[in-house]
Each structure stands twice: as structure tokens, then as C-alpha cells.
Specification:
CATH superfamily: Cytochrome c oxidase, subunit III, four-helix bundle
Low-confidence stretches: none
Shape: globular
Order of helices and strands: HHHHHH
Strand content: under 5%
CATH architecture: Up-down Bundle
Mean pLDDT: 95
Largest sheet: none
Structural class: mainly alpha
Radius of gyration: 18 Å
Helix content: over 70%
CATH class: Mainly Alpha
Length: about 180
């Protein structure tokens, strides 16, 4: 962790680049679906609901982590942020698996809603999601690589506020998209 501590921007940049590459490959449909075993139809159909649950749980852990640090409970904050990061990884893994195997879900609502509500929301969500990677990686690496006593001398608090805001907005807009795709129509 000492090497990470002195090179947090570089490691955050590397993780961001790898994440962007994975996102581009999956979104572009460049991953052959046959590369992954296909889960039974009931499991594939349950994935959107499961990742919505993971998103809601992540929102809860992020908010609880923010509350913990405001109350001065650093250990609880750290545990909740690690849990949030793990949920983030679980979400991405399962969502990318589904996208690679099944492809994106088509919007089944009215065309006017798709044009003026869904698509702008989807684009905003995508921009937020891509912005979340570097912010979360940077704040997370600062928090993990530095001893608690050293954190006030770093950008962790400021970076953490930015990362948490982007994370909450991304998970929140993702839940709205889930509702539009899987519950309303």
C-alpha cells in the first residue's frame, strides 16, 4: 500500500482506463455471448431486479457511510465505504454479464417518453457513471492507502464528497431507468 499511497492519481487513472475499456467493449457488443455460460432464463430475468436491489443497498451504505464520518466514526465509515465499493463491483460484474449475454433492454414505453425523458436520462446516467469511476477510485485509494491520522492532510474528504455525490446520482438515475424499463412498461 505504500507504493499506492505515493501514486494514488496514477493508480486511479489506471483503474479508470481499465474500467472505461471494459465498458466500451461490453457496450459495443464486442464480447461474444458464447464466451460466458448462459444462466437459466429465470436467473437472467431476475438479474435486473437483483441489480436494482444492489443499487438500493449501495445507496444505503453510501448514505450511512456519510453519516458515520459526519459523526466522527471513522472505522464505521471505512467499513461502509468498502461495502459500497464491493456492491459497486458486484453491480458492474452482474450488469456487464447480462449486457454481454443478452444485450441492452429495449425501451417499451411510448415513443414520446423515450425521446424526451428516457433517452436524455440514459445519456445523463451514462455521463455520471463514467465520471464516477475516477472519482470513486481516487477517493477509495486515498482512504485505503493512507493511515487514518494522515487522511486530513490529503484530498480524501473533498474527493470523497465528489465521489459520493456522483455515486448517489448514478445509482439513483440507474434506479429510475430500472423502473422505466422493468416496472412501468
Amino acid at each position: 500500500m505504500r507504493q499506492v499511497r505515493h501514486r494514488v492519481p496514477e493508480f486511479a487513472g489506471l483503474l479508470t482506463a481499465v474500467s472505461f475499456a471494459i465498458v466500451l467493449v461490453v457496450i459495443a457488443g464486442a464480447v461474444p455471448p458464447a464466451l460466458f455460460p448462459r444462466a437459466p432464463p429465470a436467473v437472467m430475468n431476475a438479474i435486473p431486479h437483483a441489480i436494482a436491489g444492489v443499487s438500493a443497498l449501495a445507496i444505503g451504505t453510501i448514505l450511512a457511510g456519510l453519516r458515520a464520518i459526519r459523526a466522527g466514526n471513522v472505522e464505521r465509515h471505512r467499513n461502509l465505504m468498502v461495502a459500497s465499493f464491493a456492491l459497486f463491483g458486484l453491480f458492474l460484474t452482474v450488469d456487464f454479464y447480462r449486457l454481454a449475454v443478452v444485450g441492452p433492454t429495449a425501451f417499451a414505453g411510448p415513443a414520446v417518453v423515450e425521446t424526451y425523458v428516457y433517452l436524455p436520462l440514459l445519456v445523463g446516467h451514462a455521463v455520471l457513471a463514467l465520471s464516477t469511476f475516477p472519482a470513486v477510485y481516487y477517493a477509495f485509494l486515498l482512504g485505503l492507502a493512507n493511515p487514518v491520522a494522515a487522511l486530513p492532510a490529503t484530498d480524501h474528504a473533498r474527493a470523497g464528497r465528489v465521489a459520493a455525490t456522483l455515486w448517489l446520482l448514478t445509482f439513483g438515475t440507474g434506479l429510475v431507468i430500472y423502473v422505466m424499463l422493468h416496472l412501468l412498461w
